[in-house]
């Protein structure tokens, strides 16, 4: 199916949004990346902030007139699509107790064995679409439908940093301690966000990640002697 | 300007006191909230009357019952909630700049009207800059709130007498309005006309479950909008949750969200709402672009 052109809607005198009526996928992400590149090059002086979601790009303009100018020009703009990155990050994840605190119940709810669930979760390549929710939190696309699970009715008061969890149609890693309503299936020893480093994250939009199961002994070792993430 | 160092010590404090400057707009692409003051009107005013740089860091005080000691002379200003303030046990006029002597003790009592008080200091507070901002945010700055015993550095200045220079005029009751103006949000069109009518005609009450992340409103609105993909949200975005509650996002809110984004409050209305106390009523009125 071909993705039609985005719609631009003005929200406030200074804010607007490019919006696609399409489900999140690689092709849509390619288009978004192309649009963001165009905005950053052709409208660098006019824009104060660009924010990305699954099906939209939010733009904050420095002046009212800049948004009006963009509205008059945007139909004639043709961003150049580029292929998404080939980089695949390997994320060690310990699915064992006590790290995967909700793994057992999630497997039971799915009528699965835990190893089946671990295999289903660690097999796919997940695409990084954007960062949101918490500093350094990657929105990933690609969770197999069989693992979709509604969020908890009552969120946990505190989820450990590095927790790998499933919520709705998504999977993700909590970069920092936070309340959370997702089902925790494991934990990574990696640091996901460093406010004193620029950029504060190691991955980029368009990269893919793969969860690599590790034992609790390996987890203990990596928590004591942290190593930077690796990619292939 | 004489620039010796001063230290502000928190002798007594309620919860919810933070340092705020204009925040971190350049880092949202990594999921970092913008932070910054809940009430920008008052934040800008305290810096304005001190003739500070507009990004100077101030104290945002969300609870009464604060006692502070300033180690060295300085000049401060207050705006936002109307508070009972004493300097060395003498009542002070909070509408004017307040010169503080060395070892001055400032006490902030009850917040009469409004719920957030801003305290600016000439030259701005000097807490560390992380990701281009001094605004507190858990796990970005080393502290998330100021507690008893904490110390905040500032630059000591000798208050100028400025003969013949009158204090700028300011109506401290500016936030005593109930109407909040909004622009239709990206998902506004998904509301049924019945639900839209409900939002425009009913009054909403500020819930106690409110923080710098978001101000929750008590009354429910039926939500018939299907689940949506996660997309950008901003301070002032009004989300309609799956449980039918309205949440007005604050400066520490996440940068993207999955609930329908039905309204976007004007900046002025965001400040008005920030000054509402739990239990106060607000109404929404639509503003045309």
TrEMBL record, chain A:
Pfam families according to UniProt: CT_C_D
Record flagged with keyword ATP-binding: yes
Domain Carboxyltransferase: 6-203
Keywords: ATP-binding, Hydrolase, Nucleotide-binding
GO MF annotation terms: ATP binding; hydrolase activity
SMART domains for this protein: AHS1
Domain of life: Bacteria
PANTHER family for the chain: 5-OXOPROLINASE SUBUNIT B
Protein name: Inhibitor of KinA
Organism name: Algoriphagus boseongensis
Lineage of producing organism: Bacteria, Pseudomonadati, Bacteroidota, Cytophagia, Cytophagales
UniProtKB/TrEMBL annotation, chain B:
The protein, known as: Biotin-dependent carboxylase-like uncharacterized protein
Residue ranges of coiled coil: none
Keywords: ATP-binding, Hydrolase, Nucleotide-binding
Record Gene3D superfamilies: Cyclophilin-like
Domain of life assignment: Bacteria
InterPro entries per the UniProt record, alphabetical: CT_A_B, Cyclophilin-like_dom_sf, PxpC
Chain ranges of the Carboxyltransferase domain: 29-289
Species assigned in the record: Algoriphagus boseongensis
GO MF annotations in UniProt: ATP binding; hydrolase activity
